[in-house]
Amino acid sequence: MKCIECGADIFDGVKKCPYCKTLTVNATENEKFKDFDIKYTITSEEQVRKIQETAKGPKKNALEKYLAERRAAKRAARRAARRGEPVPKKLSGRKQAAMQIEENPFLRDTAVPETGDESVKTYTRVPKTTESREMKSKKTKPQFKSFDLKSIKLQFLMKNVALVGGAAVVLALAVVLVVALASAFSSDEKIASYTYAKDNSMYMVYKGKNLLISEKVIEDNYVRKVDADEGTLISAERAAKNAGIVHSSKDGKTTFFFEDYDPETNSGRLRLIKNGKIKKIKTISDAVHNSIVMTKDGEKLLFLQTADKNGDMGVLYYWEKGMEDPFKVATDIDHDTFEFSEDGKWAIFLQNLNRVEMRGDMYAKNLAKLKDEKVKLDSNVCKLFGPSNDGDSHLYAKDFDTNDSSFDIYAINKKNRILRLGERTIKNPVIQRKKNNIFILGLADDGTGNLYNVNVDSGKKEKIATGVNNVLLMSEDEKTVIYDKVYSEKIADYYAYTRGKQPVKIAGNIVVDYNIVGTNPQMACTKDAGKILYISEFEAFKGGGKLMLCEYKKGRIVSDELVAEDVYSCFRAEDGNFVFTKEYSPSRKVFDVYLFDGKDQKLLKEEVAPEMFGVSKSGDDIYYVSNYNIEGSYGTLERMDTKGNSEELASEVFGFSISSFEDIMFYRNLNADNGSFDMCLIEDEKSNWKEINTAVNEILTF
pLDDT per residue over 311-359, tens digit each? Predict the structure, then answer.
């Protein structure tokens, strides 16, 4: 039914409209709702169930009969004159009253109707957010912060279940502690989830299980064009891979993905799968542009709808866990111009961005109070960089110069204090994560950069160096930064700067031209930046360059020595060791693999193909395909540790990939006609492999 005052859709039988508080026709006709508390906003099945329970009147306690008998037994025990009377039979044994388990409401997928230009059903009234719905529970229920049994509130369990006998008490304590331990550690758990495409369907590998999550990745019109095409269009599966239509949370438990996706408009139906539960896949919205931003836990989402093919002039929507429908935030929003604050409570976005002059207005929207109006923060803004390390400030760029594409960098804190941190730069700042500082490259007249270290809170800056091209990396403690100076776009020198010391040159004549070195790493560094291994004077036709080791400590160079010649690439391994490849044969396309501990080098494997070689993220293992058959395009996949111990993992392998979880995905039985292959998985630290699927077209995320 609809409210006679505001027209909102409300459930039959409600006494008052939950939005405008207007009495409905049921206010006088249906007296059974006279005790209904209007605090239940009708936005979910859980709340509807509560309304229906209220309508039925007080719920009888399933234990009432049992408790009445127990009270009678206690009264009999208190009276000395009547202690000889028998105890009620049902309390004489060890029987326990059954616990009533209430089923969770089922979360249904609701198709979003398309009406006019906007195909998203939006709230006419502001919905309650998760934070507001949980506010009452936070006030009434204690927060579990430790393993103190008082904070666990064991009495709550005792009030609902009568435990008779010592064994039952021990069992209850064990259950509570198991639940407490699970809740304490499950939040930090990270799940390895991967996706791939086959025959225009999308599959997910979640905890080693193979799940079909979508039967139509790319929309039919594009597929028909590919079928009728003569080779100018890429396949549907490759289009999905290139578009990056899968977005997962940091812990891997939440994944947003597109289906029925149109590569020509970069939009499709956005869906959600959580914890690998395919029966609870939820549709977020249709006609969503592939420009979405989520919080780290995947519980909140910002996305564009009805944008043009470039992702501009769209409508910005907000969705969070518990919402049935997205909330409309603002119109005239372009792609890559919106993000969350560090705590996820605010949406920061640019509106009315002029793409020629690169100037727009920056706003903030309080996501905990959606009824509040957006707040204008600044004007002439062209780019957002995200929050500072402490989350108290937000970094952005403004005052774009169309002559040299430079801009100024600003920060605005929670007190709306705006501070200019850097002037005339063309590169994003490097944000430190252990100190509230950033590195900024100011544009010099010769096109190079002046490197500054700037404090976000005060704006105080320290000039480090001139002629800088890029900041390459920071040490683990962030006290040392390594940057480069590039000459003629092909050769670079590397420098190190430690706070309180003068910058020093740590490496020279490093080739950085992609056409020469490709993707082969030319430098490796220990986490503390104490040892820098680099290749100098690389020459492709000679198969490599000079491998040098620079030891750097407390702002000065301790040593800089030649390690080997004809070195092709180098990698960091575990425990301060390095792996490098040398003696590359351009005709046979193979090299040898060595281990270097800082003093001695050891041959690990001979004749390995560069495209069939990889080092794990931790650096404790190397993977390669040996006995590679060029004609058959396959070989034997092997794993070797840094001590030289090797094992064969699989045969007839033509390629593999190493994930950040150090799982190994390898490929067999390549079909030369359509490029499909069989996909197999080896989970971390295991030797046995399993086949995931056959005739796979593309790996989407790994």
Answer: 788 999 999 998 989 999 999 999 999 999 999 999 999 999 998 999 9
Burial class from Cβ neighbours inside 10 Å (0-12, 13-18, 19+) for residue 310 reads middle
Helices 236-243 & 220-228 angle (0-180, nearest 10): 130
Nearest C-alpha neighbor of 290 from the set 274, 319, 310:
310
Measured in whole angstroms, the distance separating CA 303 from the mean position of its chain's CA atoms is 15
Cβ atoms < 10 Å from Cβ of 466: 13
Q: Would you say residue 129 has pLDDT above 60?
A: no
- Give which of 610, 619, 579 is closest to 596, Cα–Cα: 579
Extract the tokens encoding 426: 């063309």
Measured distance CA(634)–CA(58) in Å, rounded? 71
- pLDDT tens digits, 457-507: 999 999 999 999 999 999 999 999 999 999 888 999 999 999 889 999 999
Confidence at residue 239, expressed as pLDDT on a 0 to 100 scale: 93
CB 654 within 8 A of CB 691: no
Contact 397, 408 (CB under 8 A): yes
Alpha-carbon Rg for the chain, nearest whole angstrom, is: 32
pLDDT digits (tens, 9 = 90+) for 396-446: 999 999 999 999 999 998 788 999 999 999 999 999 988 899 999 999 988
CA 435 – CA 495 distance, rounded (Å): 21
CA dist., res. 484 & res. 486, Å (int): 6
DSSP character at residue 335: T
- Sign, CA torsion 373/379/384/389: negative
Find tokens 């234990």 and name the residue. Answer: 63
How sure is the predictor about 48, in pLDDT bands with cuts at 50, 70 and 90?
A: very low
Q: Are 496 and 508 in contact (CB under 8 A)?
A: no
Q: How far is CA 118 from CA 9, 124, 304, 316, 317, in A?
A: 19, 14, 11, 11, 11
Angstrom distance (rounded) from CA 168 to CA 176: 12
Q: Which residues contact 611 (CB under 8 A, 6 or more apart)?
A: 655
Average pLDDT, the chain: 79
Q: Kindly report the three-state secondary structure assignment for every residue of 477-490.
A: CCCEEEEEEEECCC
Report the SS3 class of residue 694. Answer: strand
As a whole number, mean pLDDT of residues 169-185 equals 37
Alpha-helix residue ranges (DSSP H) falling in 24-142:
26-29, 45-55, 64-78, 130-133, 135-140
